[in-house]
Design goal:
Number of helices: 8
Strand order of the largest sheet: 10-18-19-13-12-11-22
Largest sheet: 7 strands, mixed
Strand content: 25-35%
Distance between the termini: 20 Å
Radius of gyration: 32 Å
Low-confidence stretches: 1-39, 189-201, 513-533
Shape: elongated
Number of strands: 24
Mean pLDDT: 77
Length: 562
Amino acid sequence: MAILLRRGHCNRKTGCKMELSGLAFAVWMFICFYASVGGYPSGKIREACTSMIPCHGSSPQLSPEHTITVNGTEFKPGDNIEVHLSGPDFEGFFIQARDAEHLDSPAVGSFMLVDRRLSQLLTCGRTKNSAVSHTNKAKKKYIKVYWIAPGGAPKRVQFLATVVKKYKTFWVKIPGPIVSQPNTPTPTTPLHATSEAISTSHPVSYLSKPFNASGCGSMKFCIRNPSNCDPESASCFFLSFQQEKSSVFIEMSGPSEGYLAFALSHDQWMGGDDAYLCVNEDHHVHVSTAYLKGRSTPVLDSENALEDVSWRLVDGVLQCSFRRSIRLPAYKGRFNLDASYYIFLADGEAGEGGLIYKHRRQPLITNGIYNVTGLPQDIGGSRSPQLIKAHGALMFVAWITTVSIGVIVARFFKPVWSHLFLFGKEVWFQVHRMLMLTTVMLTSISFVLPFIYRGGWSQQAGFHPYLGCTVMALTIFQPLMAGFRPSRHAPRRQLFNWFHWSTGTTARILAVEVIEDDRVQILQSLTSAEAEGRLFKQVVLTIYVCGNIVFLIAFLAAINQI
């Protein structure tokens, strides 16, 4: 998600990283990066044209520190009014002119810039150049622009400004001077001359004691990872929902000093989701709602629909709780809690000013859709979907077990089994071919699974799918090339051997960790006389195969627990 979210969704890969070689893994690690959520550093804030509220996930300040001044009090259509915004250092701003008697109405008139390095023109509604904002987040003390009065302007126009001092410190709709057309009578009722910088969140308190799992499955709906873990522990991710009349009380806990987030989703993909974040900023936790658009950074809401907000941050465990109504028709992007959804739970790092970064691992995702206001349950989740786990397991079997044993048999057991035949061919060759065809079959099945899971090509999976396609192509090429193998004494046999070896080696480097040198060295260190000894090699092969099988069983059992 940030977030998720998503923070992310984060990041669902189309392949499992387990089969990458050391080189491929290093490449993958190199291209991973953090996507920070930085509000609107470029100043292109058309989404805030109406509310003038930056989506920074916190409430505006109450007492403005900045002032707006103009060089006149009257105007006629076509006049230019000089507008100044000044005050202590600020990073961002947003200036509009509106009908003084209807401040919720669209922007009036247009602006002209003085310094294009500091300010830029925006179009709000149907009026071109009807707002001015910053071009970057460099600190400023003073902004000067010109407002051009339009024909058919209201009798009275008031200038408003939103100013961002830093990410979570800002003022909304700071009231500026009112300018009037000539001979406009004085209003009998006072105009809106106060700032709308009122708090949009509810009081926040500190949790005196940690959460516990009592009531899970009987009174409240719980998600825990690992299963049945205690939210008081430093390794437990915990999320609970407890219905109380027309609202739901939510608790979230996990080992994180950055942020925790959960999202409700109609599917197992990031995008179009209802998200909730608890973000640590200088040892103070902010709780906010957000909306996930695709796999991009979360869009934090300017208005907070959460009540009874509390938090706790002790020994690296972040906990927060809050209440929200089951239905919130007035809040766009908030899902009704009496329906069924997939539930995501993610964690990650947060930077200065509460900026959140992309989660470094897959979010925890429920294995099915659940109604958190329905029958209480105590469930777990998975950080890897079943198809992706199957993808990784099949690739692991293919490139750790079958291909490794096949290579060892072909390389070291020709003299051992040279006089034994199976279906008219040497035993070593038949075993080698069987294992390699098994590798092709397993790799082919594994290759298809991520595409079934994603429904196509993933644009957010980095180099992994490209490496996977390369491995798949080399895997298919190997048996095709083997079908044209020259006879043992043909002049082109050496050329074939070289291509066969290089293609297979390249595929293995891309697909699996290089086999430990000591295993190969044990076999290569034998003298020519010892190389003829069948018993020793058979014992080594038996130990190697049994060791691989035991490790494979343990590994697949571990995958099943993810």
